[in-house]
Amino acid sequence: MIKIVRSFVQLPVDNHNISKQTPSSGLEISASRHFTDWLQSENISLAFTTYQTSRLLLLGVNPGGKLSGFERLFDRAMGLYATTDRLYLSSKYQLWQLDNVLLPGQFYNGYDKLYVPRIGYTTGDLDIHDLAIDEDERIIFVSSLLNCLATVSDRHSCTPLWHPPFISKVVNEDRCHLNGLAMRDGKPAYVTTISRSDVVDGWRDKRRNGGCVIDLQSNEIILTGLSMPHSPRFYRDKLWLLNSGTGFFGTVDLANGKFEPITFCPGYLRGLAFWKDWAIVGLSKPRDQTFSGLELDEKLRDKDVDPRCGLMVIDLNTGTVVDWLRFDGIITELYDVRVLPEVKRPMALGFQTDEISRILTLDPVGEL
To answer: Is residue 166 part of a domain?
Structure first.
């Protein structure tokens, strides 16, 4: 049995009542009436990353039935992937593996998951976006800087695996802004790019309608005309994605190469996860010139609404938003979101304080 020794005290960054200011982060959280009830009834928690404010955030429900929030700082936290007992997280120049050290039924200060950074790969600033684990348990990630899919290396920054057919060479020039990765049956299946440009920074000129989806099996572009697409995900035999420059969540008609919009969300969309009949979509507030001049601006004006940062829970059967979570204050952008099944209240260790040196966990005694 795993044993925790020299345990540290509980951090104050937890159990923030919604709609109350959280002094530790300058963050105000508000949620729909039944958001916490939904997490509790489904026995799930959520993990997500914030781009500009460098946070890994974990949301669950505490024993009192209120929202439990836990944050850790990782410089420019972006790509996120979750397995039963593990999180993978990309940061500015590293990629981290965080392992849960609690057994089923074990708790640490009231938390039923304790994620500890165990393995870190120093990659350099590859601008890692989406990441996943394939059927061989290999880490696969998108390097926007190199315009390629890659995996970690025990000696170098990474091992490039694939690049779009229109990219002439793998070089550290963000040309097409490759960003999204969809897995299918344990294999990389689809990617999204902002453009088909083959010159450095060329994607910025094609933000409004230059986005495309590439089928990795055929190595062909199967959909064009998107506006800054992100977060492709294959779920229930459908390819879903966020057409971020328009604010629409929808599906890709693989037979006809068309994007079918389902739900408009008032924000710049990044981060998509699924649970049963629901999609969880991440929203960000538009930032500077990168997000200006898009159809999203026009949609927000037409609907007389300000852009939001937060999460929306969408019913896949009706396309309606059934629950939501909203951030105001220091957090203005999200990148990725993941569902943690059968997790009530997760926490993690980080590097900003010394508790990571004080919490020791042991395997059972082995043999020489």
So the answer is: yes
Indicate the pTM of the whole model. Answer: 0.92
If one counts the domains in the chain, the total is: 1
Residue 307 lies in a domain: yes
As a three-state string, the secondary structure of 299-358 is: HHHHCCCCCCEEEEEEECCCCCEEEEEEEEECCCCEEEEEEEECCCCEEECCCCCHHHHC
Domain presence at residue 368:
no
Look at residues 63, 108, 38, 64 and name the one whose alpha carbon lies nearest to residue 321: 38
Nearest to 31 by CA among 240, 259, 328: 328
Q: Which domain holds residue 21?
A: 3-362
Q: Give pLDDT < 50 ranges for the chain.
A: 1-24
- Burial of 86 by CB count in 10 Å (0-12 exposed, 13-18 middle, 19+ buried)? middle
* CA–CA gap between residue 251 and residue 298 (Å, rounded): 22
- Reference 80, options 50, 39, 118; nearest CA is 50
How confident is the model at residue 133, as a pLDDT?
A: 98
Query: What's the rounded Cα separation, in Å, for the pair 315 and 321?
Result: 6
Give the model confidence (pLDDT) of 75-96 as tens digits.
999 999 999 999 999 999 999 9
* Number of Cβ within a 10 Å radius of residue 252: 25
Q: Is residue 68 part of a domain?
A: yes
What's 344's domain CATH number?
2.120.10.30
Measured in residues, the chain has a length of 368
Q: What count of other Cβ atoms lies within 10 Å of the Cβ of residue 274?
A: 16
